[in-house]
Structures are given as structure tokens and as C-alpha cells.
Amino acid sequence: MEEDESVKRETKGRDMDRIAVDSSNVAEVGYDEDAMVLEVEFHGGKVYQYHGVPVDVHREMMASGSVGRFLNTRIKGQYRCERVE
């Protein structure tokens, strides 16, 4: 899948578009701006949602040199997380 292709998923009652990213650990990232929910699918197929993530943090993540590193240092442990698939 090309990096700029998006995949629409219905997750927890809402539709969320996810974008494939170039990462050794993360396959796709989605963001629901209204709900402030960041959705991450890992290459192993597990999907997690991080709640309360501001839009500027999502933008920083997508512009970072390493999505996986950003996730580990700026998202995990900072926002409520739940596995959704």
C-alpha cells in the first residue's frame, strides 16, 4: 500500500480513515479530530486508540522522522489507550 493511500475503517461506532506510514512497527495511523482519537494499527494487526490526543500532536507525529519513536516517546503513557481489534 502506498504511503498516501487511506483505508477507511469503522471503529467504535465511528468511521476513521487511516494512512499507511513508513515504519518498521506501525502500519497505519488514523485520527478523528472531532473526538481527538488517534488510531494506530501495528504490522502485527493489533489496533489501538489513544484518547484525548490534540490535533497538533497528531500533526507532529505524522511529520516526524519516526512515527514509531514519536508514538513511544510522546503518545504511549500520556493518553488513555484501548485495544479495539
Shape: globular
The span between the termini is 20 Å
Spell the H/E element sequence: EEEEEHHE
Radius of gyration over all CA atoms, rounded: 11 Å
Stretches with pLDDT under 50, minimum 5 residues: 1-11
Mean pLDDT: 87
Structural class: alpha+beta
**Could you tell me the number of beta strands?**
6
Give helix % range. Answer: 10-25%
**Strand content range:** 35-45%
Strand order of the largest sheet: 1-2-3-4-5-6
Summarize the structure.
The protein is built from 2 helices and 6 strands; from the N terminus they run E-E-E-E-E-H-H-E. The protein is of the alpha+beta class and 85 residues long.
Would you kindly provide a written description of the structure presented here, covering whatever features stand out?
There is one protein chain. By secondary structure, the chain is of the alpha+beta class. The chain has one domain. It contains two helices and six strands. Helix 1 packs antiparallel against helix 2. The two termini are 20 Å apart.
Keywords:
85 residues; alpha+beta; 6 strands; 21% helix; 41% strand; disordered N terminus
Task: Give the SSE layout.
Elements: E1 6-11, E2 14-20, E3 26-32, E4 37-42, E5 47-51, H1 55-63, H2 67-75, E6 80-83
Antiparallel strand pairs: 1-2, 2-3, 3-4, 4-5, 5-6
Helix pairs in contact: 1-2
